[in-house]
Amino acid sequence: MTATPLPRPLVVLDCDSTTIQDEVIELLADAAGTRALVAEITERAMRGELDFAESLRERVATLSGTPEAVFEQAYRRVRKTPGVEALIAHVHARGGLVGVVSGGFHEVLDPLAADLELDHWRANRLEVVDGALTGRTVGPIIDAEAKAAALREWADAAGIPLAATVAIGDGANDLRMMEVAALSIAFNAKPIVRERADVAIEHDLSRAIPLLDGLDGLDALDGLG
Question: For labelling, which of 38, 124, 180, 202 has a CA lying 20 to 30 Å from the CA of 22?
Fold first, then answer.
């Protein structure tokens, strides 16, 4: 796929291990005291024993009974990825939009979105009853197809053609939105994502900025890791 200049881009990022350096479910599980259980379920998913929706339901179930104060506790531990604020500022300076779509949770993504001044964001939502998590989600699960749909929806709403869209992610759950976008960038990514992306970068999201200028940017980043 050939990158083209993007006069007014829409850049859509994954959240966990892309926009931030952490996995939100792990931060919540740490606060809830269920990290070992969550790690076991994650390992099963990585072995292919569970799909994303199944693994999400099982991991969320471990949080049942946890006070909702866990959200604030988790957010205080979030570490923004180096370069993310510079990337967002650059896109906004070009009149573009930035969205984050996450298999994590609105309860942590919402304050992050405010801090980063995101234009769009979407994630799963945890059910809370009487001040405690029920161990269930509410609403549709944000899986690979939902991420791709969000990118299309946000581009359409802004009148931005798909030819001016960029998707940045690290895991298999990001591949569908990366297929939809004109330019796909693997960031600190799993091998399968690096193989399928147009370009791969590491460590600092500001390295994506030259890519917004098209092929010259791709050449400038060739070999960076």
Answer: 180
Edge-to-edge strand list for the sheet holding 132-138: 132-138, 120-129, 97-105, 10-14, 165-169, 183-187, 199-201
Is residue 16 annotated as part of the catalytic site, yes or no?
yes
Identify the CATH homologous superfamily for domain 10-21+79-221: HAD superfamily/HAD-like (3.40.50.1000)
Report angle CA 189, 192, 196 to the nearest 5 degrees: 95
Terminal C-alpha separation, the chain: 21
Distance CA 210, CA 208 (A): 6
15 within 8 A of 223, measured Cβ to Cβ: no
- The pLDDT tens digits for 5-55 are 456 899 999 999 999 999 899 999 998 889 999 888 877 876 668 788 888
Residues whose CB is less than 8 angstroms from the CB of residue 39 and which lie 6 or more positions away in sequence, other chains included: 26
Q: Is 14 a catalytic residue?
A: yes
Run of H or E residues at 41: helix 35-46
What is the residue-wise DSSP string for 165-196? Answer: EEEEESSGGGHHHHHHSSEEEEES--HHHHHH
Catalytic residue among 16, 22, 119, 174: 16
pTM: 0.89
Checking if the pLDDT of 213 tops 80, the result is no
Angle 185-190-193 from CA coordinates, rounded to 5°: 45
